[in-house]
Design goal:
heterodimer; A: alpha/beta; Rossmann fold; 3 domains; seven-stranded mixed beta sheet; six-stranded mixed beta sheet; 23 strands; B: mainly alpha; ABC transporter involved in vitamin B12 uptake, BtuC; about 0% strand
Amino acid sequence: MAEAVTAPRFEMHGVRKTFGATVALDAVDLSVRAGEVCALVGQNGAGKSTLMATLAGALAPDAGLMRLDGAAYAPRNPLDARQAGVAMIYQELSLAPHLSVMENIVLGVEPARRGIVLRARMREIAVAALGELGHTDIAPETRVGDLPPAAQQLVEIARALAIGCRVLVLDEPTSSLGHADVAILFELIARLKARGLAIVYISHFIEEVKAVSDRFVVLRDGRNAGAGVTSTTPATDIVGLMVGRAFDEMYPRGTRTPGDPVLLLNDVVPGAATLALRRGEILGIAGLLGAGRTRLLRAIFGLEPVMRGAITVGAFSGPSTPPDRWRQGLGMLSEDRAGEGLALGLSVADNMTLTRLEPLGPAFTVVPSRQQAAAERWIDRLGIRCAHPRQTIGELSGGNQQKVAVARLLHHDVDVLVLDEPTRGIDVASKAQIYRLIDELVCGEPVTRGDGDASSVVDLHREKAGRPVPPVARLGSARASAKIAAAPEAPRGQGRKSVLLVSSYLPELLGVCDRIAVMSRGRLGPARPVEEWTEHSLLMEASGARAAS
Amino acid sequence: MDRALAVDGSVGRTGRVVTARRFLDERGVLVGLVVVALVFGALIGPQFFGAANLELMARQTVIVCVAALGMTMVIVSGGIDLSVGSIVALSTVVTALFLRHDGSPSGALVAALGAVAAGALCGVLNGVLVTQLRVVPFIVTLGTMLIVRGAAKGLSDERRLEAPITWLNDLLKTTQTGHGLLLPSGIWMTAALAVAVAFTLQYTRFGRHLFAIGSSERTARLCGVRINRSKIAVYTVAGALAALAGVMAFSRLSVGDPTVANGLELDVIAAVIIGGGSLLGGKGSVVGTIAGAAIMAVIQIGCSQQGLPNWVQQIVTGAIIVFAVGLDRWRTGTQG
């Protein structure tokens, strides 16, 4: 592959794309050689998606040119791009869940004679493609919907190979994978690289970029912000290029003084979980994908049945439904932002205020101007980038969508925030903002964005509604009739929240939590102070290695 | 805030862009209505827009409109109700049965209320089945469509039920012969209902919840919306409104007819869809629905006055439905 050193397999020069007045891409260059992994990094809204769509033939650039193995490449549509050998693996997999693995692999290019599909040949192709990936463990006859996400992703990559792709673009491929699967994926990428594929790897995770890529290209505001060799560039420099400024404090930590318990789990199944979440603390739950963390959270929130054990939220115990939980001052952020967390067809304001429309109008009504004002307040506070509170939320970038989902909890003014993967698939800057926000919430300090405004979260909320807000059954007031022991000296109304945080991103857990418990094979271990954990020990515990040894 | 706005373009806080799009959404179907009306106006002449003709169109479309108000809410919530045609038939039968018992003016009111209650009951049945059996609304209401039709036939002994003439028969009587109200009382009633339903959808918690359920049921559940309660309520309202449409139908027929309004549900659904409703839920408006119903009425009356046979009218209506939805998809991009 001597020629590969000089001639890129794929290159784009001066690509420009505008939507109305917005310049999405401005003179962007990108090149990948055969047998090379080029990481494409940038915040949401930096132009990565537009670049992807251009590459994939879904959008035609206004200016600039693209070359594939030296020949001009101007796909008219995604099919065209695929046939030219450019395959995309999107974050949301595009598989037919009801079809088998082999049917998916040959989908669109089924081997057939006179319209009759040759099943034996189809199987051969599938076995060959899976074999190339080193995954003969996946049976070609399996229904894709029955496979775990990691295996589904393999099937999608196998499909790309089956059509003979030369350039493989992976968009946030680890967003739905656990730790072990990420390692397998990286192994696979190394294998594909050795086969001479040119790979574009899009990710928010700098650690991943460091681990998997040879070179990196940074996009910022639709332009090339920098590029370099990954191995010789420190991670902080890459992040610096992405945000355009140095990133000194990713995980701020105010003074935290945990108070009395607000959420008690006593031997709760699913999860075999016993824990006490205290006011003003962040309790993290680590674990591998499929360890049952999400199920536990959903059971707490009333979305899944509790088989056994007792859950106490403030003064409330016994079975509860999601509406009950909201009224008790406990809100949940879903891990599945697009499918559950947000109604993508509705506006920002509707999504933000849905749990609590009561203060937004007299009687049973919702006054649009009030709803808008409520939403605008949080848009302003959290720096959510949207044209207007009435904008359809599906049009926002992932990071901004997630901030709306978080803002819902703030609008509702919950006391306990149950967050399931709150920073999955969002950009670094949004992550940093969410970390800061969470910290401020548990410390009881103002939610800063409007600088120098000293009013607290709670006060903001009251003032925003324009009239006294009918009281939600709060934990604080509930404490008066407390069934759980309450420290009377703990001041009420200080606005300190509590956070139960599930994350697969270990630096995040170690960065923001006060205590961390590990869930392994459906069982939650004891919560220990964050100082007692390291990434290594968390992983050991999560994979059950500690118990085995 | 200003910084955020600057990034995303030249949009002001007033939300001009959003209002403009909203306006376009509804203007799409209104433009369609104007175009269709102008085409027939040009073919037939100015008398097509005469007061008498406009009133005729309103009277023609009012039954579909009333039922479509309920259907709009159901479709916004992501459901569908195929039983409305049968409920209309049941409603005419129930009205007739009550009137045969008591044909006085107060008896007529009781008859109308009884019919509406019967329709609401059918709606409750729909809602309970949809939420408790977790069967998709299409199948549930396909079943209740047959059940309710059968019940109507059973109640009436499979005959048309003659009933005494009361004020109910004047609901859609023409005012062109000159009595007080500019339009028949039934049309005023429909207009008032339309305003009420539009208000409910846009400005009440129930309405916002319906949009949320239709847009993403899982999100609504996460957000503590009482989904089953809302669904039962929406099917109940839809049933009641369908029954009210049945009272209007009775007003015109002056008999209880268990075979009437066969296939009416499709006209009703078509009106909602032409008006911008999405069968995937989360979209739909009263203004759009009424314009959609009006488009169909204009085509129907225009074709018959132009002397075009029924089959032409059906082809045109069918083409309009497909065209309207296609246009909507094109305008909003790929999203449904």
